[in-house]
């Protein structure tokens, strides 16, 4: 039986990723769209004929609570500003709806920890689940890279770098909550958790980060409070590596490289490069997209089967957030090492 779904939030990511992903998922059927304004809800539903619209300005019977009261909607996908999401997550879970909410899990570790505790104390998780969307865990290139790392022996070291320049006027900059962030890290929080998730996936649990030391900087005035982090991670196995991310530099591109006993594994955009015994092999994943279709499909299958995908638990997302927050705190302390607890 198809699962009735509502999309909560009608921003660019909902239009570019959430809507196509729901339409592509065999187990899901879009029933409704909610946005704070009817105008924005209509913009997402522009080419749809079968989705009911809800908003704060649509009048009686068309509020978020009214949407949650519908018995034909079993699940919601929430993509709202970071500070706003927790309230909508709680309301949906209280209405016994499955939730897939965009990363980060919350604005900081304290808020996330409180929300996770509330979830387990107040929700029957055998019947209703809260999942956190982290598409990097579903990208084919990262999954293939992780499999190659497992075959290449012990990890000896690693380096992650993601460099870009976010210009004023670009579509993801020109939103009030990003231009003037009321949360730690600015773009580093909003985007940085992706790169942490990708790195953690490649490292695997046996090489989970346990301690970080970092320097942070604000290279561009329009990217408060900081836009750059350069860090060293110490891992559970004892090896260390580097993590460098900036949204304010003229460097460009991303690269995730792990040195293993038998060679190196590098994940690039939609490509994995293996160097072993002096020979280089590459494999391309041109059709992987952003990984959102794979992630939404897995979420729907988890609801159908009653088995939540472990990659989507809030606890997994909390680990990403903790690393990010620790790096920011270390940067504030001029590189002081911070131990991780989760």
Automatic annotation (TrEMBL):
GO terms for biological process: NADPH regeneration. InterPro entries: Gfo/Idh/MocA-like_OxRdtase_C, Gfo/Idh/MocA-like_OxRdtase_N, NAD(P)-bd_dom_sf. GO terms for cellular component: cytoplasm. It holds the Pfam family GFO_IDH_MocA_C. Gene3D superfamilies: Dihydrodipicolinate Reductase, domain 2, NAD(P)-binding Rossmann-like Domain. GO terms for molecular function: nucleotide binding; oxidoreductase activity. Residues 150-335 form the Gfo/Idh/MocA-like oxidoreductase C-terminal domain. It comes from the Eukaryota. Residues 3-118 form the Gfo/Idh/MocA-like oxidoreductase N-terminal domain. SUPFAM superfamilies: Glyceraldehyde-3-phosphate dehydrogenase-like, C-terminal domain, NAD(P)-binding Rossmann-fold domains. This is Gfo/Idh/MocA-like oxidoreductase N-terminal domain-containing protein.
């Amino acid at each position: 039986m198809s699962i009735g779904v509502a999309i909560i939030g009608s921003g660019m990511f909902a239009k570019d990723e959430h809507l196509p992903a729901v339409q592509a998922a065999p187990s899901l059927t879009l029933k409704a769209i909610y946005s704070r304004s009817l105008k924005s809800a209509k913009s997402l539903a522009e080419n749809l004929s079968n989705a009911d619209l809800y908003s704060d300005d649509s009048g009686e019977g068309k509020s978020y609570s009214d949407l949650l009261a519908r018995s034909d909607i079993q699940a919601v996908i929430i993509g709202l500003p970071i500070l706003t999401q927790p309230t909508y997550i709680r309301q949906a879970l209280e209405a016994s709806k499955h939730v897939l909410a965009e990363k980060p899990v919350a604005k900081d570790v304290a808020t996330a920890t409180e929300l996770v505790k509330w979830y387990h104390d107040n929700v029957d998780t055998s019947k209703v689940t809260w999942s956190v969307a982290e598409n990097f865990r579903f990208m084919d290139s990262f999954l293939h890279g992780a499999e190659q790392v497992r075959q290449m022996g012990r990890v000896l070291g690693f380096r992650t770098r993601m460099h870009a320049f976010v210009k004023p006027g670009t579509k993801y900059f020109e939103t009030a909550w990003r231009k003037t962030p009321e949360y730690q890290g600015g773009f580093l929080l909003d985007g940085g958790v992706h790169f942490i998730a990708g790195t953690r996936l490649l490292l695997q649990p046996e090489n989970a980060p346990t301690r970080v030391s970092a320097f942070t900087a604000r290279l561009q005035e329009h990217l408060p409070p900081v836009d750059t982090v350069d860090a060293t991670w110490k891992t559970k196995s004892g090896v260390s590596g580097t993590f460098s991310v900036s949204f304010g530099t003229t460097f460009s591109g991303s690269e995730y490289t792990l040195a293993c006993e038998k060679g190196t594994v590098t994940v690039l955009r939609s490509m994995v490069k293996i160097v072993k015994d002096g020979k280089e092999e590459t494999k391309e994943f041109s059709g992987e997209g952003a990984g959102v279709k794979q992630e939404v499909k897995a979420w729907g299958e988890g609801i159908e089967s009653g088995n939540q995908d472990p990659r989507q638990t809030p606890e997994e997302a909390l680990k990403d957030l903790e690393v990010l927050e620790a790096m920011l705190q270390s940067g504030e302390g001029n590189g002081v090492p911070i131990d991780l607890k989760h």
